[in-house]
Amino acid sequence: MGGMISENEPPAGGKPWYAGVTSYQWLVLIIASAGWVFDTYEAQIFNITAWDLLPGILAGTGDSHGVQFWKDVFFGVFLLGGATGGLFFGLMADKIGRKPTLVATILMYSVFSGLIYFAQNLWQVGVLRFLVAMGTGGEWAVAASLVAEVFSSGARAHASGIFHATSVSGTWIATSAGLLVGTHWRYAYLMGILPAVLVAAVIARVHEPPRHPAPTAQDSGGLRELLLDPRWARRAILGMLLAAVGLGSYWAVHVAGQDLAQSFLARNGVDAAVAGAKAKVAYGYIETSGGLLGLLSFGPLCARIGRKPAFVCMQLAAFLVTPVVCFLPRTYGQLLCLLPVFGFLTLAMHAGYAIYFPELFPSRLRATGAGFCFNVGRVMAASMVFFSAWLKKQMELRLALTLLGMLFLLGIVIIQFLPETKGQPLPE
How many domains are there within the chain? Predict the structure, then answer.
């Protein structure tokens, strides 16, 4: 593959990690990251616009559940769609190649997001969000594998961490789009068609990685080998559980920063429209800026102390910060000061999935295995989000989030049973 250096070759002479990175490697990182940015836009635009979209869709239906309930339900639908797409397109990427599969996933999430412009009822929104999620789940599996295969072991953690951190740009773009269109939420989804132009760059500039040697009867590739070969099955199942904790806590806890801000303002008598706009800024810009720093920090932390210790540190810190941001603020300014810290600690570990999961599997299983971990983890995460929707109906939001924050402790337990991959060559 053009510009690729030895998989095990770290920068020599104590040079920085990027010293040996070639122009083609930077290009792959930029294109993969651009796909992930727009991937995140498609995921976050619903979170940003839900309080405009759902009241309009629910008007006249007599539905008694309310916006918060359906918001969490559609989060769950999105997770299920991501799991389906991640598994399907991960298999396709290992079978027909990274490049054509990346093109297909970007086209899928772009087109179906644009079609939400025409949605008139709940089931139409749900079906289209499921299909959008299939594309976004598949794009991550392919792009993360591609970045891991292009960069050497000395640069892989940093590059993969940067790749995942660019997702914050997608949240910023979604927030800006949500604020720009205001209550005219349909236009924010119409903008989702724009990532389709990225397909041209993928087709023109990305080279298909060299195919691995032909598999033996034992090393057959696909889900059969992934789940039946004990070398990989244990890693796949535990990686999936680790992702389930992270994705469940992301949609149930992390993105609730917007709801925390909105409920705080509502309790203090702020007009609903003003509170909604301020809450979008609080989450989409302020909390997410802290999340960006967390994502960028996780790669260097993995490179310095190892993958497993980095996961433990961040998950413990996320557990501790959740009740603090829920109950400590007495003024809105105090809440705004804590939200970046909350974003940093609850989002940082997600960069670890792009770093860690591709390192667990050989090339014939890399996209399948990474996609299985990250996206099948969404199935279990969806159950957590559905539970979150129910829990938030039973009690005050801050108490519900504090209880849901205990998910981070489960992640600490799971990581203990997975191998450390710091400094190791990619398995073949």
Answer: 1
Neighbours of 12 (CB within 10 A): 9
Q: Is residue 424 in some structural domain?
A: no
CA angle at 226 for the pair 223 and 231, rounded to the nearest 5°: 170
Question: At 380, which amino acid appears?
Answer: M
Q: Which pLDDT belongs to residue 7?
A: 40
Rounded to an integer, what distance in angstroms lies between the CA atom of residue 417 and that of residue 428? 21
Contacts of 57 (CB under 8 A, 6+ apart): 119, 120, 121, 122, 125
Q: Which SS3 state, helix, strand or coil, does residue 188 take?
A: helix
Check which CATH number belongs to the domain holding 378 and give it. Answer: 1.20.1250.20
Whether pLDDT at 221 is above 80 = no
Q: Is 399 helix (H, G, I), strand (E, B) or coil?
A: helix
> H or E stretch including 351?
helix 350-356
Q: What angle do CA 200, 139, 193 make, to 5 degrees?
A: 55
How far apart CA 63 and CA 67 sit, in angstroms, is: 10
Return the SS3 of 329: coil
Q: Rounded to whole angstroms, what are the CA distances from 190 to 50, 140, 309?
A: 15, 22, 42
Quote the domain boundaries for residue 96: 22-210+220-415
Helix residue spans in 97-191 (DSSP H): 98-115, 122-150, 153-165, 167-181, 186-190
**For residue 165, is it within any domain?**
yes
What the block records as the tokens of 300 is 């260097």
User: What ranges make up the beta strands (E) of 194-277?
Assistant: none
Is 314 within the bounds of a domain? yes
- What is the C-alpha radius of gyration for the chain, rounded to an integer number of angstroms? 21
| SS3 call for 59 | coil
In a domain, 55, yes or no: yes
| Residue 63, pLDDT above cutoff 70 | no
Residue 417 gets which letter from DSSP? T
- Look at residue 120 and give its three-state secondary structure: coil
Question: For the chain, first and last CA: distance in Å?
Answer: 17
Cα 250–chain centre separation: 8
* pLDDT band (50, 70, 90) for residue 66: confident
CB 220 within 8 A of CB 232: no
Tally of CB atoms within 10 A around 40: 22
Structure tokens at 123: 């089931």
This prediction's pTM: 0.76
Q: Is 397 exposed, middle or buried (0-12, 13-18, 19+ CB in 10 A)?
A: middle
